[in-house]
Amino acid sequence: MQTVVLVKQVVDTEAEKRLLPGEWRLDRASVENILNPYDEYAVEAAVQLKEELGGEVTVLSMGPQEAEEAIRKALAMGADRGVLVSDPVLQGSDALATARVLAQVLRGLGFDLVLCGSMSTDAQTGLVPAALGELLDLPVLGAVNRLEVHGGSLKAARQTDEGAIVYECPLPAVVAVAKGINEPRYPSLRGIMGAKKKPLDTKTAADLALELGAVGLGGARTRVHAATSVPPRAAGKTVTEYESPQEGARLLADFLHENKLV
Amino acid sequence: MARICEDLLFPLNRPADEEGCHWKGGAVATPAGFTGAYATFTEAGWTALTADPEFGGAGLPKLLGFAMEEMVSAANLSFSTYPLLTAGAVNALARHGSPELRARFLPNMVQGVWSGTMCLTEPQCGTDLGLITTRAAPRDGGSYRIDGTKIFVTSGEHDLTENIIHLVLARLPGAPTGTHGISLFLVPKFLVGDEGAPAERNGVVCSSIEKKMGIQGSSTCVLNFEGAVGYLVGEPNRGVRCMFTMMNDARLGVGMQGLGLAQVAYHNAREYARIRLQGRALRGPAFPEQPADPLIVHPDVRRMLLRTKCMVEGMRALAYWVGYHLDLSEHHPDPAARQEGADLVALMTPIVKAFFTDQGFEAANLCVQIHGGHGYIRETGVEQYVRDSRIAQIWEGTNGVQALDLVGRKLPMHNGRLLRRFFHPVAEFLDAHADDPHLGELVALEAKAFGRLQQATATIAERSLRDPEEAGAVATDYLRLFALTAVGFMWLRMAEKARDRLVEAGALPGKIRGGGSSAGVPAATAIADPAPAIVSERNVAFYQAKLTTARFFFTKVLPETSGLLATIMTGAAPVMALDAADF
C-alpha cells in the first residue's frame, strides 16, 4: 500500500493573521506556522492504513523551505518520507496551479492512494483534491469519515444529516478526509527523533519540468481582489423579560433555531 | 510535548483541583482523566526523555528535561508529580542499585509502566532524617524485611501504573544512630517474579491520603510497611547519601516547578491585563473609544507584570545554564570539565530550588493581585496557582534548609572551589564588557550586585568561623542576594545576544565584537555561534523587548541586593536576641 498524503504549512490558527502590504497574501513571517490541522487527519489515516496493510507513506507539500517543518511533523507521526516542492516561481499559485504542481510530482511517484485534509485553514477553498482528480484522471471522494481498503479498491463513507453514504471505487484514488475521521496521534519522542533521519527530497520547478506559465501567480486562474476583516461580533442577546418560564424557554429555543444552533 | 500539555494536561488542571484523589480500602483513584493522560504521556515516550539508553531511555540532554519539566508543571503541577518523581527514582537506582536490581526494575520505570516514590518522612521525622525509626531486618536469600510508617509519600499509591517502586530509608539492626545509620531499600508494591511481571502483593499499604492546601490531584500518602520485602540499594548505612542522588535531581526539578508556575501565572495575568477594562491611563485615555482603558496601561500593574516577566525569563536562562553544566558533568570527555560542571550544579542547586519556588509563589500571588476580586474567587482559576505553588517552597527540603545548604555546605566545600565556578565567569564577563557602548550601564549595575555578593560571602565566611549562627541567621538573605546576582548574569548574557542580533538587523547602530561570549563555558566545549539567522521583523521586536525587560530587571529589581547586603552585615544578633519566652 503506497499512500501519498498532501500537506500544507499554514499560519497558526490561533495567531493574529495579517496580509502583506500591497498584496493579498498572508504574511507568514510574522507568525508561527504549523501543519494544517485538517491534514493531521489525513496523515493519521495514512499511518493507520500502513499499520494495517503495510507499505509506505509519503508526505508531499508545496511551499517555502520552512514548510519542511510541517513535513517533519507528519514524519514524526509515522510517515516514512517527504517530498517538498519549493521554488520562488511557484509563489502565488492558486488552487489549480497548486494542483498542477502536485499532479506533476505524483506522476513521478508510484501510489495507490492520495489522501488529503478537507481544506487548508488559511485559504479554505478545498479545491485541490478535485483538481488533482481531474488532472490525473482519478476518482475523487471528499468529506470521507470512514475509510477501508480491500485489495485494489476502497470503501469510503460520508456522514450526512440523514445517514451515511457508502462509496466504493477502484484504486488509485484521491480521498479528502473529514475532520473527525480519527484522532490524530501525538508524535512520540521516538517519532520526533526518528523524523530527523527520514528522507526528505526538495524539488524545484526545474526538477519537475513544469511549464512555468501554468504555475505561480502567472498560472493562477483566480485573483484575490479585496479582503476585509471579519466584522466585530455583534453583542449577544439576553432574554430578561418573559411572562412565564415556558415563555422564557420558548424565546431561548426560538433564538437557537433562528441561528441554526440546534 | 507542547500539544500534550495544552490539549490534555492543562484542561485537567482545574477539574483535578475540584475533584482531588479518592482513597478507598487502601487504593487511590486519581482524578478523572489522569489515567488516560498518563497513558498518552508515557506511550509517547516522554518519561524516557533523559534516561540512560541502557535502560530504554532516549539519552537526551538533561537540559531538555528541564524544559519539559517547566512545561508539564505549568500545565498541571499535580499530574507532573507522578512521572517526574519516577525520573528521580530512576537516577538513584541507576547510580546506586546492583546490576540485578537495575535490570529488573529500571526498564519499566523508564517507560513509565511502573512509577517511583521516595519514602523519607515519618511522623516524628521531617527535615531531620537522623530520627528515622523504620526498621530493616535481613531475611534469607539476601532481601530484607521492612517495618514502619512513612508519611507525605507523594504518588505513594495511585491507579496510573501497574506497579509502584518505593525507595525507602530504614535502619538496619545495630546501625549507628543519626544519619550515618540509615540505609536505602527498594520496596515494590507488587513483588516482581522471575518473568519480570508483577506478582504477589508486597506488605506495603496506603492507610490514608492527606487533605491539603493545593495539588489536589497528587496523592499524598501514609504508607504502612509490615513485613514488606525490600532490597538494599547501595551500601549499608549509606542510604542518605544514595537518597541524595534522587534528592538533588528532585530539588532541581522542584525549581522547575516554581518556574512553571511563575510562567503560567504570568500568562494568565498578562492576558487579563490586556482585556480587562478598568480606569483610565494617568496621562489621559489610551483608548478613548472604549468605556475604560485595559489594566495594562496602569503603572502599578505593569510593575507587577514586568517583575514576573523578568524573573521568569532570567530563571529560565539560569535553569538551562545549570542543565547544560549537569550534562557536562555527566558526559564531557575531560574529567576536569566534568568536575567543573558538577561543582557548578552543586552550588546552584539550592538556589534553583529555593529562589525559583519563592518566585513561583510570588508570581502566583501577583497574578491574583492583578485579577483583583476576580482572582480571589475560584472562577478565573488563578487562586489555584497560589495554593499549588506553595508546596514547592516546602518539599524536597524547605527553602530555609536550602539556604543552610548553600551557606553551610556549598560555600566552604573544597575551600570555596564551588564558589569560584560561579565567581570567575561572572568577573570575566564584567571585565570584558565594562566599556560596552550598549550594555555598559547594565554591566555597571551587575558589577555593583556582584561586589555586594563578594562582600557578603567574605563576611559570612569570616564570622561563621567564630559562630555558626552568624551564617544561619543570614542564610536566606544571602541565598536571595546570590540568586539575584546569578539571574543578573543571565540577563547580561541575554542582553548581549539581543544586542548582537539587533545590530545585525540594522536595528541598533554599532559593530559586533568578535568572539562572542563564552563565559562559564569550558573552553573545550564552547559552542560556536550558529550562522547568523535572518533576523525577521518579529525577531527584532522580540530582541528589543529583551533589552527593555533587561533594563527593568537591572534598574527595578537588582537594586534589592543593596538592602540584602545591609541586612546580612548586621549579622545574627538581632535574630537571636529575643528570648523564646518573649515571642
How would you concisely characterize the structure shown here?
The complex is a heterodimer of chains A (262) and B (583). Chain A has helices at 37-53, 68-76, 95-108, 128-136, 189-195, 216-219, 245-258, and strands spanning 2-7, 9-11, 33-35, 56-62, 81-85, 113-116, 140-144, 146-150, 153-159, 164-170, 173-177, 200-203.
Structural class of chain B: alpha+beta
> For the CA atoms, what is the radius of gyration of chain A?
21 Å
Question: Order of SSEs of chain A, N→C?
Answer: EEEHEHEHEHEEEEEHEHH
**CATH architecture classification name of the largest domain in chain A:** 3-Layer(aba) Sandwich
Overall strand count of chain B: 11
Write the layout of secondary structure elements.
The complex is a heterodimer of chains A (262) and B (583).
Chain A: E1 2-7, E2 9-11, E3 33-35, H1 37-53, E4 56-62, H2 68-76, E5 81-85, H3 95-108, E6 113-116, H4 128-136, E7 140-144, E8 146-150, E9 153-159, E10 164-170, E11 173-177, H5 189-195, E12 200-203, H6 216-219, H7 245-258
Parallel strand pairs in A: 1-4, 1-6, 4-5, 5-12, 6-11, 7-11
Antiparallel strand pairs in A: 2-3, 8-9, 9-10
Chain B: H1 2-19, E1 22-24, E2 27-29, H2 34-43, H3 62-75, H4 77-96, H5 99-110, E3 114-119, E4 135-138, E5 144-154, E6 163-171, E7 182-188, E8 190-192, E9 198-201, E10 204-209, E11 220-233, H6 239-275, H7 299-331, H8 335-371, H9 373-376, H10 383-390, H11 399-410, H12 417-433, H13 440-466, H14 468-472, H15 475-504, H16 537-557, H17 560-569, H18 573-576
Parallel strand pairs in B: 3-6
Antiparallel strand pairs in B: 1-2, 4-5, 5-11, 6-7, 7-11, 8-9, 10-11
